[in-house]
Amino acid sequence: MLVLMMLNLKLSRIERKLCETNRRLFFSDIDGRLIFESYNEIDNAFDTWKYGDVAAEQLNELNQLFVNVVRNTGGYNEQRIFDGSNFIDSELPNATGAFKLPKRCC
Question: What's the pLDDT score for residue 3?
Fold first, then answer.
């Protein structure tokens, strides 16, 4: 049963990645009037709505991965504007200080 659950989880991740890639490819020919948002208020699963250095660093990695994936789909996505947020969309100094602007990519 556990093996089946793990297999389903892996398939779910693959399906999600394919779906996201297809969505970005679908929008690749739409001009700059379309803005992508990476995530909305990412939270720390271990200590809800509290800042954590590890969680903030993981969000920076996710934001960079998001930029890389979208840029690599081509079309207008190579110049697409992104809306990204810091950890839990916080204005506190530790959260804003930990935010890293993703690099241009590829």
Answer: 40
Length of the chain: 106
Nearest in space to 20 (alpha carbons), one of 81, 69, 77, 87 = 69
Task: Classify residue 86 as exposed, middle or buried by CB count within 10 Å of its CB (0-12, 13-18, 19+).
Answer: buried
CA distance 22 to 20: 5
Check if the beta carbon of residue 85 is closer than 8 Å to that of residue 62: no
Q: What is this structure's pTM?
A: 0.70
User: What is the three-class DSSP state of 48?
Assistant: coil
Mean pLDDT, the chain, integer:
77
Two tokens at 24? Answer: 């970005």
Q: At what angle do helices 53-71 and 2-27 cross, to 10 degrees?
A: 50
Q: Are 42 and 54 in contact (CB under 8 A)?
A: no
